[in-house]
UniProtKB/TrEMBL annotation, chain A:
<feature type="region of interest" description="Disordered">
    <location>
        <begin position="99"/>
        <end position="122"/>
    </location>
</feature>
<feature type="compositionally biased region" description="Polar residues">
    <location>
        <begin position="107"/>
        <end position="122"/>
    </location>
</feature>
<dbReference type="GO" id="GO:0006888">
    <property type="term" value="P:endoplasmic reticulum to Golgi vesicle-mediated transport"/>
</dbReference>
<dbReference type="InterPro" id="IPR006722">
    <property type="entry name" value="Sedlin"/>
</dbReference>
<dbReference type="GO" id="GO:0005737">
    <property type="term" value="C:cytoplasm"/>
</dbReference>
<protein>
    <recommendedName>
        <fullName>Trafficking protein particle complex subunit 2</fullName>
    </recommendedName>
</protein>
<dbReference type="InterPro" id="IPR011012">
    <property type="entry name" value="Longin-like_dom_sf"/>
</dbReference>
<dbReference type="Pfam" id="PF04628">
    <property type="entry name" value="Sedlin_N"/>
</dbReference>
From TrEMBL, chain B:
<keyword id="KW-0256">Endoplasmic reticulum</keyword>
<keyword id="KW-0333">Golgi apparatus</keyword>
<dbReference type="GO" id="GO:0005783">
    <property type="term" value="C:endoplasmic reticulum"/>
</dbReference>
<comment type="function">
    <text>Plays a key role in the late stages of endoplasmic reticulum to Golgi traffic.</text>
</comment>
<feature type="region of interest" description="Disordered">
    <location>
        <begin position="1"/>
        <end position="27"/>
    </location>
</feature>
<dbReference type="InterPro" id="IPR016696">
    <property type="entry name" value="TRAPP-I_su5"/>
</dbReference>
<dbReference type="GO" id="GO:1990070">
    <property type="term" value="C:TRAPPI protein complex"/>
</dbReference>
<keyword id="KW-0931">ER-Golgi transport</keyword>
<dbReference type="GO" id="GO:0006888">
    <property type="term" value="P:endoplasmic reticulum to Golgi vesicle-mediated transport"/>
</dbReference>
């Protein structure tokens, strides 16, 4: 399972992006995207913004769940109050057993495997927790008096926090 | 570089540019919630605000321009408060305002309670059929004007334009672009109950009403 996470500003401008892999089932947290797919991910993610604009006015929740699908890429969305979008592209691995040499660990707790089924309630819940934690840190980031709306988030501390949230829930 | 570096390499590269505070605590280490009783001193606010007004007054030629500057000072605060106040809501009621009424309620209740420790006094819709895009938030005695006496020759001025800017920031952030202005409506005669009564006139852009009509149908 590999993830591509991006924060998109109100002018559809990217503010932050981060690629990571699953840490569950013995995953090592490294993304396993094919080299060509990494460019494609950005297109896939941004193309789902049209759908976000439709969904955002029918549902007042912050977490909009999976809103778009492109072959095996699923896009989950979280809208902040200030109309900044958190988008997470998740791509379940084709082969069972997750990443690398974690097969032994996977067999012991594979029942609630996050990501094997991208639309299962467990996956939705895990992504929701991830988004909520990122949102908390995002609000802290914008509380800075030097931060103006739609500025790129460059803080290494923010990146660490997102990494930690990804490791914890996904 | 044609491709993105993996996350790890990027973060170690960026590490060099940032100066940490001496105690190692950044804004990310501080909690977002605060205790209910954590109020600020009104006199220090009044002092700060009087400085803000005189700062805005420098190099302006007219009252409109002064109000515009005060408005601009408030705008970013509104943008940020929108997100902050929503995260402080309990998870069940954490919803983005989708309609004008929901947004104005959020302003009247959450925003006002956070800023001034009480709700706004009234919410009204313009009764004039020509201006269905105008709404009014009424405050009988705005806190920001508590220690301000406006000189006679500037009687048009209402320093609550700052608060109007905050409201405008909240509306803009929530994708309800609007113009917000503050107007004094308190009577000047003796025995007037609320001489400092202020109306915040919220005038939404036409596209907001258009969308509102579409959502109502759907």
């Amino acid at each position: 399972m590999s993830y591509y996470f991006a924060i998109i500003g109100t002018q559809d401008n990217p503010l932050f992006e981060y690629e990571f892999g699953t840490s569950k089932q013995g995953g090592d947290g490294q993304p396993r995207f094919a080299e060509q797919a990494r460019h494609l991910n950005q297109f896939v993610l941004h193309s789902s913004l049209d759908i976000v604009e439709e969904v955002q006015w029918t549902n007042g929740q912050l977490y909009l769940k999976v809103i778009d699908k492109f072959f095996t890429n699923y896009i989950s969305c979280f809208m902040t109050a200030g109309n900044v979008k958190f988008l997470l592209l998740h791509q379940p691995t084709a082969t069972a057993g997750g990443g690398g040499g974690g097969a032994a660990a996977a067999s012991t707790r594979n029942s609630t495997s996050v990501g094997a089924n991208p639309t299962s309630p467990q996956t939705e819940e895990a992504i929701k927790n991830f988004f909520n934690e990122v949102y908390e840190n995002y609000v802290k980031a914008i509380m800075s008096p030097f931060y103006k709306v739609n500025m790129e988030i460059r803080s290494p501390v923010f990146r660490q926090r997102v990494t930690a949230a990804g490791r914890k829930y996904l | 570089m044609a491709h993105l570096g993996p996350g790890k390499a990027a973060s170690s590269k960026e590490q060099t540019g940032l100066r940490y505070p001496s105690n190692g605590k950044t804004i990310y280490h501080r909690p977002l919630n605060r205790t209910k009783t954590a109020e600020l001193s009104q006199s220090s606010f009044a002092y700060l605000f009087s400085e803000m007004v005189s700062y805005a007054q420098r190099r302006v030629t007219g009252i409109q321009e002064l109000e515009k500057r005060l408005n601009l000072q408030g705008h970013p605060i509104g943008l940020k408060l929108l997100d902050l106040l929503l995260t402080r809501e309990p998870p069940r009621s954490q919803t983005r305002p989708l309609t004008i009424i929901a947004l104005l309620h959020f302003i009247k209740i959450n925003l006002w309670t956070h800023l001034f420790g009480r709700q706004a006094d009234r919410l009204e819709k313009s009764s004039n059929p020509d201006t269905p895009d105008e709404y009014m938030i009424i405050d009988n005695e705005p806190l920001v004007n508590a220690y301000i006496s406006v000189p006679r020759e500037m009687s048009q001025l209402n320093c609550a334009a700052f608060v109007a800017g905050i409201i405008e920031g909240v509306c803009d952030g929530a994708m309800f672009p609007a113009r917000v202005t503050a107007h004094s409506v308190g009577g000047k005669e003796e025995g007037e109950m609320w001489p400092g009564k202020t109306v915040f006139l919220v005038k939404f852009q036409p596209e907001v009403l258009e969308r509102e009509a579409l959502i109502g149908k759907g």
